[in-house]
């Protein structure tokens, strides 16, 4: 059941940028003007920017903070009671795993944080996740078939889904993908994706997948060891993170149901920044050098050794690129 605060926010968001009469709100929601006023103040305390003016009423301007109800509104009310927003956590991936350990999940759930103290990507690498300037979230995606999916294709198609949404919000940016899960602008990393299977121990099958996405949106300052490798997408431009998250979550969920479509791997190839470049691929303690010849239909990386031999790798991490 929705609260008064949620009802008022929904009405203001539906008229975003326009004045909404307090009397009309009270009459439509069958509430007192005092209840409306209290709800407005509660919304303001949660970071909602709402202007008040005598004889005009209230006008919703925006919210720079992450907010469950606002995200749900922008999603088309698809995620009601399925979004958890936190100010600071160790990692949204860990939160999702903890939730799965004590809940049966039959629909997608979203875990969002304004700041991660131990954000990480593949192979345990740290992901810098400062407050207010990024978007860090994890999705629990139920897998009713319990099949172990083609993880390579799932990750590449999710990368395409994320970039497609970013291209809508940052129309002047040329996003590219570094195999298999990193999002780049030029030679700088701006985001990453991690895909993990949550195994059902009784059936030894994948009951759920946890998809983690981290993006540095307007981050300006990075630790010394990252300043030459990472940057924010646009430090001078702040977008509505609630709207971005809603659109991205919808796209990722839709992609999960259709991730094997051939056109998605083609879209990934178009955005790959590695074609024709010499790289070093790390496989555990072993390193392989070669020239990137392409991406196979299952999402594997194709390298050409100095001998001319072609090799295909389903896993590994590209640790060096000769730009």
Explain the overall architecture:
This protein is an alpha+beta fold. The protein folds into 3 domains: 4-63, Winged helix-like DNA-binding domain superfamily/Winged helix DNA-binding domain (Arc Repressor Mutant, subunit A, Orthogonal Bundle), CATH 1.10.10.10; 68-271, BirA Bifunctional Protein, domain 2, CATH 3.30.930; 278-321, SH3 type barrels (Roll). Helices cover 30% and strands 31% of the residues. The protein contains 8 helices and 15 strands. The protein has helices at residues 4-14, 22-29, 33-45, 68-74, 92-102, 151-169, 241-258, 262-271, and strands spanning 19-20, 48-53, 57-63, 83-89, 109-116, 134-142, 175-178, 182-185, 188-200, 205-216, 278-283, 286-295, 301-304, 310-313, 317-321. It has a 7-stranded mixed sheet with strand order 4-5-6-10-9-8-7, with helices on both faces. Helix 6 packs across helix 8 (262-271). It starts with a helix and ends with a strand. The model has no long low-confidence stretch (mean pLDDT 92).
> How many helical elements?
8
Give the second-level CATH assignment, the architecture of the largest domain.
Answer: 2-Layer Sandwich
List low-pLDDT spans.
Answer: none
Order of helices and strands: HEHHEEHEHEEHEEEEHHEEEEE
Catalytic activity: biotin + L-lysyl-[protein] + ATP = N(6)-biotinyl-L-lysyl-[protein] + AMP + diphosphate + H(+)
Family: Belongs to the biotin--protein ligase family.
Pfam family, one: BPL_C
InterPro entries: aa-tRNA-synth_II/BPL/LPL, Bifunct_BirA, Biotin_CoA_COase_ligase, BPL_C, BPL_LPL_catalytic, HTH_11, Transcriptional_repressor_C, WH-like_DNA-bd_sf
